[in-house]
Specification:
The structure is a single chain. The protein is mainly alpha-helical and 178 residues long. It folds into 2 domains: 76 residues, no CATH class; 90 residues, no CATH class. It is 72% helix and 0% strand. About 8% of the residues have low confidence.
């Protein structure tokens, strides 16, 4: 989490570059921060490495949401419509990307203690977890996405803001809670 925070703060310093006042899209930054934390804890990689997976899953969530708003016709999801084909291709690409992450992690034989490595170690010692199950668990980690972590990050920034920058706390708090 520290590495993710330092990365975000250094990015903000680059944007600032001696300017007196500058604007940051806090929503986007907190989203990227939470995604980076999830990637590091679950897979030992950064958000940039898993960025495509996050983007695809967000698109997939949007497509599913749109499908839920339509009238349900049994079997319609099996018809090769434009939307269904896109959803199938997204699912296939996510599977492929996650498989690459798993294979890359297996090849490095790292001793780091992130969740994927722990699952792979369990697979070596006990042949209970299959490759498909590991990929499905990875999907769940990525799908658990940053939206669940954003409220906590907002609260942390808001409370830290009051202690560090008392004059600006009203402005920052009102911006964070929009």
């Amino acid at each position: 989490m520290v590495a993710s925070t330092l990365r975000m703060l250094s990015k903000w310093d680059e944007v600032h570059q001696g300017k007196g006042v500058y604007e940051i899209d806090v929503h986007k930054e907190l989203h990227n921060f939470a995604a980076d934390v999830i990637s590091r804890v679950a897979f030992g990689s950064s958000y940039d490495e898993g960025k495509r997976i996050f983007q695809l899953q967000e698109e997939q969530m949007f497509n599913v949401y749109q499908s839920l708003r339509q009238v349900y016709i049994p079997g319609f999801r099996f018809l090769p419509t434009k939307k269904n084909k896109r959803m199938w291709s997204i699912d296939k690409e996510i599977q492929q990307l996650l498989q690459e992450v798993v294979v890359a992690n297996q090849q490095t034989e790292s001793s780091s203690r992130h969740l994927l490595n722990l699952m792979l170690c369990a697979r070596k010692h006990q042949d209970r977890i299959g490759a498909e199950e590991i990929i499905e668990e990875c999907k769940a980690f990525y799908f658990g996405n940053p939206n669940g972590s954003k409220p906590l990050a907002r609260k942390s920034f808001s409370s830290a803001d009051r202690r560090v920058l008392p004059k600006q706390s009203t402005f920052v708090s009102s911006t964070l809670w929009k």
